[in-house]
Amino acid sequence: MFLTEVLDRNSVAGPVSANSKRNALQIVADLAERTLGAYGLEADAILQGLLEREKLSSTGVGQGVAVPHAALPGLTRMHGVFIRLETPVSYEAIDDVPVDLIFALFAPEDAGTEHLRALAKVSRILRQKELREQLRQVDTADALYALLNRTETSHAA
């Protein structure tokens, strides 16, 4: 699985302003609705899926990164959304560091191991310190998308 298979240019935004974890997840859900709306999914349902998953444990994986995810009815393939926040928000991350980089994944309800592999890949890519620093320096969604795309192709082997 390549990030470019789940993440299209219209699913990337930043820098955006959020004042809480819930507000950040609402922004993710609103952005996701642009592509997931084709499956009949609205932002409210997407947000509920994310919040239900967060009840289990925080998806803040550390170093200012969160990888929220949800299995949603009607999806036929994996979809992703990436946002960079202007200012980090408290996210109950494993290292207690506020989050400003959020890569959300949405999977079909029966995705199984495909969902787990996608989560592992996103986490691996965002563990790269240099990439995180670059993502925090750029000021447009196009630049964010280009960085994620370039990183993927340079690490595809």
UniProtKB/TrEMBL annotation:
Transmembrane segments: none annotated. Residues 5-151 form the PTS EIIA type-2 domain. InterPro entries: PTrfase/Anion_transptr (IPR016152), PTS_EIIA_type-2_dom (IPR002178), PTS_Nitro_regul (IPR006320), PTS_SugarTrans_NitroReg (IPR051541). It comes from the Bacteria. PROSITE patterns: PTS_EIIA_TYPE_2, PTS_EIIA_TYPE_2_HIS. Pfam families: PTS_EIIA_2. PANTHER family: NITROGEN REGULATORY PROTEIN, PTS SYSTEM FRUCTOSE-LIKE EIIA COMPONENT-RELATED. This is PTS IIA-like nitrogen regulatory protein PtsN. It comes from Asticcacaulis currens. The lineage of its organism: Bacteria, Pseudomonadati, Pseudomonadota, Alphaproteobacteria, Caulobacterales.
